[in-house]
Amino acid sequence: xxxxxxxxxxxxxxxxxxxxxxxxxxxxxxxxxxxxxxxxxxxxxxxxxxxxxxxxxxxxxxxxxxxxxxxxxxxxxxxxxxxxxxxxxxxxxxxxxxxxxx
Amino acid sequence: xxxxxxxxxxxxxxxxxxxxxxxxxxxxxxxxxxxxxxxxxxxxxxxxxxxxxxxxxxxxxxxxxxxxxxxxxxxxxxxxxxxxxxxxxx
Lengths: 102, 90
Fold this sequence. Notes:
The complex is a heterodimer. Chain A is an all-beta fold. Chain A has strands at residues 2-10, 23-29, 51-55, 64-69, 85-96. Chain B has one helix and five strands, in the order E-E-E-E-H-E.
């Protein structure tokens, strides 16, 4: 599960029927340097490219989420569903203690 | 399977049901010389790995689904073992 911050959403009026009821979040994956300030609601855009994550948990803008990618993203759904990133956790807190450089 | 170091933990109230009650650890991949690679990610842990310990993280989704006993779990990363010693022959 990678970690990212919700920085926006996309809206589609025409889409696959299996996808009704969820939201499409624009998520910026967090870089190592941003972990110490994660969950402070301050929105940041990292150097990594943002991606769209399907969400049925209810994450909002500024939330830090964990998302699953690839085949595992479709595992919770009973029917085949055309997504490759799914929000699976909304983090309340992240405690990051970097290991001293070796 | 990745050699990683535990660099923290995460708490999530709202999460997929297969994640609730599991320990979520922040892991960062290590290179040959134990330098950190890339951004940290979250893996579930059933062994009780501690902060700054080196662990082996599996990326096997099928294994993870067996581990949490849920065929519909979206989990892929899990701590497979705690590394005592790592030897490089070169």
